[in-house]
Design a protein that fits this description.
Serine Threonine Protein Phosphatase 5, Tetratricopeptide repeat, 24 helices, about 425 residues, single chain
Length: about 425
């Protein structure tokens, strides 16, 4: 959660970060005065004393939480706010304060729970609902955020930020047409909102509406001409339109603006591979790997560029690294299998297929390829078993069916039948 978003939330709910009124007492008055002077440790001690003297006073616990929060003692502050809520469950300020301190700790689920409790007390507060939705989204609960945002938009349809948040949440759930309507409304309300234009472009691209996506990206870039992410998005759009020259220009602009942009280097490598410029592609992938040695897509891309140059041993090393980094990605298995077979390493390919099947037993193509490798090293009975399993998983696999017939014929020949 960005510091800007944190400050915005604090501005929306100032009561959450201020002291609540309590009956006059020496300790409470001293704590307030010390806090106003910025003497936080002394203020904490005084407010601790005030809470001890009046243990059933929820506001005293809340005020202690405020001074603890200001000292970045977030766990202790959260405990104080929870105690305040236990004593006064309807105290909106304490629920909001707990939400804010949970956000500072990166505890999105706890933040959402606190905001939801506050929203039950103030169900018509569109801004509060918006913060609840943002907490749910930060927690990865995008589907849960949508109805909350719909409720918020129903209360404040003229708020561009709420329309934008709803559009983004709908897009993440693949509901692109609904998302588009809200993103366009956000743009109507705030025409220079670059985030709305960028998300509109992304959604249009995912629908295959590339010309419209291109226009949206161009408008976003007009508003933010130094954004590498927008240049990369425009490049992806051109790539799908098969306008490779302009795609390359956009990807190169992205890496020029942000030289450490790993994804853009990978995209550039994929594009150069597509255009048959394999040495340049390999260089792009190597730069991505230099920037992020743990990038499986970069390692796999490098392998592909090397295979296209018939550098099979180097490609094998790249594919093995991709597989090490991402063993659950079937593309890495397939790539390694292909390069092993190209080198005639059928025994190693067999071992690789078995390893893939151990990870994902229902991968029909792995069984089919295992059958092919076993056939090539003369293990016809095992090849037939592998082909049968491939057909069990995918009865429409014509290659597996043909392979099974060949393996059975060789079995019969070997036994003299």
């Amino acid at each position: 959660m960005s510091r800007v978003r944190q400050r915005e939330a604090e501005a929306l709910f100032p009561m959450a970060t201020c002291l609540l009124p309590v009956p006059a007492s020496d300790a409470a008055d001293r704590g307030r005065a010390l806090l106003e002077r910025g003497e936080l440790e002394a203020a904490e001690a005084a407010l601790q004393e005030a809470a001890r003297l009046d243990p059933r006073r929820a506001a005293a616990r809340h005020n202690l939480g405020v001074v603890l929060d200001r000292q970045a003692k977030y766990a202790a502050a959260a405990a104080a706010f929870r105690e305040a809520i236990r004593l006064a469950p309807d105290a909106v300020a304490s629920h909001l304060a707990l939400a804010l301190v949970s956000r500072r700790r990166g505890l999105w689920s706890e933040e959402a729970t606190a905001y939801r409790a506050a929203a039950r007390l103030r169900p018509d507060d569109a801004h509060l609902l918006g913060e609840l939705a943002r907490a749910l989204s930060a927690d990865g609960r995008f589907a849960d955020a949508i109805p909350v945002l719909q409720q918020a938009v129903g209360l404040a349809a003229d708020q561009a930020d709420l329309q934008l948040e709803l559009g983004i949440a709908l897009g993440r759930q693949g509901r692109h047409l609904e998302a588009e309507a809200h993103l366009r409304e956000a743009i109507r309300l705030a025409v220079d909102n670059v985030v709305a234009h960028a998300n509109l472009a992304l959604g249009l691209g995912r629908q295959g509406r590339y010309r419209e996506a291109e226009a949206a990206y161009r408008e976003a870039i007009r508003l933010d001409p130094l954004s590498a992410r927008l240049q990369r998005g425009l490049g992806v759009t051109y790539f799908f339109e098969r306008d490779y020259a302009r795609a390359e220009a956009a990807f190169r602009a992205a890496v020029r603006m942000r030289p450490d942009y790993v994804t853009a280097h990978i995209d550039l490598g994929d594009l150069l591979n597509e255009r048959g410029r394999y040495a340049e592609a390999a260089a792009a992938f190597r730069e991505a790997i230099r920037l992020n040695p743990r990038s499986a897509p970069a390692a796999r891309g490098l392998g592909s560029a090397l295979v296209s140059q018939s550098l099979f041993a180097e490609a094998e090393a790249a594919y093995r690294e991709a597989l090490r980094l991402k063993p659950d990605d079937s593309r890495n298995h397939f790539s390694l299998w292909d390069v092993l077979e190209k080198q005639g390493k059928y025994a190693e390919a067999t071992a690789a297929y078995r390893a893939a099947i151990a990870v994902k037993p229902d991968l029909a193509e792995a069984h089919s390829r295992l059958g092919r490798a076993l056939y090539r090293i003369g293990q016809f009975a095992e090849a037939a078993r592998a082909y049968r399993e491939a057909l069990r998983l995918n009865p429409e696999d014509a290659d597996a069916r043909a392979g099974l017939e060949r393996a059975q014929e060789m079995q019969q020949t070997a036994t003299g039948r």
